[in-house]
């Protein structure tokens, strides 16, 4: 059975990587497909057919996925874990769905991914699942963390965090007073800590630092307030353009040391580039190289950021913007093949805008790295 399944798993990873590196579409493509559409893929359907209603074969596939995730740290195995379960859910294979302790949790997360947001009702449901894990059943956290480690789940959590922080600003409330934000931080902690949890077999939620809520999230919120103020100020006649306040040393310390702070910063940077906020982008992009565990060079993040930067192509005519994107962020990581491939995708679309001397400098830099 393992020999039959193995080529399918390899094919699945290859397809995911192809969609991340493909330069044929400048629009963001990776997160656009709905969960229902993704699990119609040939690999997921064939795996579901091979498993059928056989609980033993299903458990075997899950064990393959856990082992491969541990061996490679590749998060796409976590995506497949969720997609296979939901494909069996679509086929109403109750023999398997009823005994998988992650079924209802995964179903709820799947609905959130479809909506690209975790609303307050689903937030309460998800919290109920996490709080309802009984003594002696803690090992379930390992599989729940794998479901959350799926890039599509983490993307939904990241987008929801930005929306909830905005909601706090609109209502003049503090992040620490929002039960939704507290749950999102718990979910981030579980997803980002999945590999360590499964590797160590210590099934408990990561301890959350109170300073995340009292210091870091308010700092992100203040950056968001500045961004809004600047946009409004630009519409007023005779107002001088406002600059951005550089992130503080404390902010940088959080980004360097805390995975949740690091991940939230990545999603803030995606938000400002999606909004084409040039000043905010120039302020935050140089911070990304400091992200804990070099998180800012992961393919799923790079793919999204490059897609939004392609939409800002006119800005690359200006040397200061080129300097921020290339010198401060992409070129320091160019010795990695994946970063170079994402850089090529960016250049494929924006090269007519980039000054010729800058283009030549990038090519020379890469040649020197070889």
TrEMBL record:
Superkingdom of the organism of origin: Eukaryota
Swiss-Prot/TrEMBL GO biological process terms: negative regulation of transcription elongation by RNA polymerase II
Family matches, as Pfam families: COBRA1 (PF06209)
One GO CC term on file: NELF complex
Listed name of the protein: Negative elongation factor B
């Amino acid at each position: 059975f393992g020999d039959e399944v193995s080529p399918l798993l390899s094919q699945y990873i290859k397809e995911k990587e192809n969609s991340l590196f493909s330069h044929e579409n400048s629009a963001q493509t990776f997160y656009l497909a709905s969960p229902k559409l993704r699990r119609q893929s040939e690999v997921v359907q064939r795996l579901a057919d091979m498993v059928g209603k056989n609980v033993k074969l299903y458990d075997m596939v899950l064990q393959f996925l856990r082992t491969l995730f541990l061996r490679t740290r590749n998060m796409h195995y976590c995506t497949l874990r969720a997609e296979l379960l939901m494909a069996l859910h679509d086929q109403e294979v109750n023999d398997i769905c009823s005994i998988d302790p992650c079924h209802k949790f995964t179903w709820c997360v799947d609905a959130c991914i479809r909506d690209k947001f975790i609303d307050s009702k689903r937030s309460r449901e998800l919290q109920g699942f996490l709080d309802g894990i009984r003594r002696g059943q803690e090992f379930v956290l390992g599989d729940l963390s794998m479901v959350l480690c799926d890039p599509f789940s983490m993307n939904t959590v990241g987008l929801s965090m930005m929306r909830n922080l905005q909601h706090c600003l609109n209502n003049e409330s503090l992040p620490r007073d929002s039960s939704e934000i507290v749950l999102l931080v718990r979910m981030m902690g579980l997803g980002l800590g999945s590999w360590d949890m499964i590797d160590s077999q210590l099934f408990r939620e990561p301890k959350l630092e109170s300073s995340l809520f009292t210091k870091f999230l308010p700092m992100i919120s203040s950056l968001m307030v500045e961004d809004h103020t600047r946009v409004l100020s630009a519409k007023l006649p005779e107002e001088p353009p406002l600059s951005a306040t550089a992130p503080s040393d404390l902010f940088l310390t959080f980004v360097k040391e805390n995975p949740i702070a690091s991940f939230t910063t990545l999603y803030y940077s995606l938000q400002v580039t999606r909004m084409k906020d040039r000043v905010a982008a120039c302020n935050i992009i140089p911070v990304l190289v400091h992200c804990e565990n070099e998180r800012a060079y992961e393919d799923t993040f790079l793919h999204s950021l490059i897609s939004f930067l392609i939409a800002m192509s006119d800005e690359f005519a200006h040397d200061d913007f080129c300097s921020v994107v290339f010198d401060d962020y992409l070129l320091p990581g160019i010795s990695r093949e994946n970063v170079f491939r994402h850089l090529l995708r960016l250049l494929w679309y924006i090269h007519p805008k980039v000054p010729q001397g800058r283009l030549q400098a990038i090519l020379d830099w890469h040649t020197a790295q070889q």
